[in-house]
Design a protein that fits this description.
347 residues; nine-stranded mixed β-sheet; single chain; alpha/beta; globular; Rossmann fold
Length: 347
């Protein structure tokens, strides 16, 4: 059995490397502090001290930092919801949120249930639509919200979401903050439409954004996450898919410890205690051989949840990051999260 597991792990890692190497349009951007994206005036000489204080204050005041107010310009046209993000980035294209709405066919179900779906980094407009249709068939409305700098929110000359996760400290923080705020604005719209039971489904970076939103959002009753980790900075510094992000940061003298501290406010880990005493239903689906959300980081998160007495369900599959999306792992995961959310939100 040990030999078989070792063989499978090597095979999975080879597949993961192949998929990573095949990704188009990957760019190596220069390191930047991005103080202008973090409410500062650009004193680069004191950037380290500034971000240490900025991160601490963001966590202390996270309920306000991740503002949950509704947008004031919701519009639904041909199944696409749009509204203006409450976080203003330098790019007009990115500040218009787009979300595909897959309305449940069983509209007379009571209570009405809806799930916000957050895809993986660099996902395209058409990706995870089958996931939404699956939730739709199970009696839940699915709203697939485009993350900042993705698909219809992409900015000129950047077909990839380079600014959602990039070697710019402040800009990456702003993008993750914007994503969480946009999720909460999407939930407000669903409440306005009469949805009474709300959930979230996140994949990869979508799981990190979804986890933070869950910790701050009372309206979320159930959440399913594909891949789970502790610190945003550790994933970037150690993971396979973010090599091109970490290298310019490392070359600029940023350590893993630095990055963990700077990006702590956009990490799930510091908010776990907010789940204590709650009744949220949580499912974690993880890859045993994941070279992106490394298994030791996943296990640290699991241990913290148990330490804080947070109830959750877990499905650990013998796959990696990309390979969770292929047969048979995708079918196993899809059935599990679909039925989990259906039980949690419609029964």
């Amino acid at each position: 059995m040990v030999a078989m597991a070792s063989w499978l792990e090597k095979k999975i890692h080879k597949y993961e490397e192949m998929r990573w190497a095949q990704e188009p349009n990957r760019r190596n951007l220069p390191f930047g502090w991005g103080l202008e994206h973090a409410d500062a005036n650009g004193d680069v000489a004191h950037a380290r001290d500034y971000f240490a204080k900025y991160a601490a204050e963001a966590i202390r005041a996270s309920e306000n930092w991740y503002d949950g107010a509704p947008a004031n310009d919701y519009a639904l046209t041909d199944g696409v919801l749009t509204f203006t993000s409450r976080i203003v980035s330098p790019w007009r294209e990115n500040n218009c949120v787009h979300a595909q709405v897959f309305a449940a066919r069983a509209r007379r179900l009571t209570p009405r249930a809806a799930v916000v779906v957050l895809s993986q980094w660099n996902s395209k407009w058409h990706e995870q639509q089958n996931v939404c249709r699956w939730l739709q068939r199970l009696g839940m409305t699915a709203v697939k919200m485009s993350l900042p700098y993705h698909d219809r929110r992409s900015i000129p000359d950047h077909p990839r979401a380079d600014h959602m996760v990039g070697p710019n400290v402040g800009l990456t923080m702003q993008a993750a903050r914007q994503a969480v705020v946009d999720v909460r604005s999407t939930l407000r719209w669903l409440e306005q439409q009469g949805y009474e039971r709300l959930g979230i489904l996140g994949t990869s970076i979508g799981s990190a954004i979804g986890f933070i939103a869950m910790c701050h959002e009372p309206a979320i009753r159930a959440a399913a996450y594909l891949h789970a980790s502790t610190y945003f900075g550790d994933v970037v510094a150690r993971g396979l898919t973010t090599k091109n992000v970490w290298e310019p940061m490392r070359d600029a003298g940023i350590t893993i410890e630095d990055l963990r501290a700077f990006w702590l406010p956009i990490s799930p880990f510091p908010y776990i205690s907010k789940l204590q005493g709650g009744e949220k239903r949580i499912l974690l689906i993880t890859g045993r051989y994941d070279p992106t959300f490394l298994p030791d980081l996943t296990e640290t998160l699991i241990a913290k949840l148990r330490q804080e007495l947070i109830e959750f369900e877990r499905l650990s599959l013998p796959c990696g990051h990309y390979s969770l999306g292929v047969t048979p792992f995708s079918q196993i995961a899809g059935y599990r999260f679909g039925k989990f959310l259906q039980r949690a939100l419609t029964k």
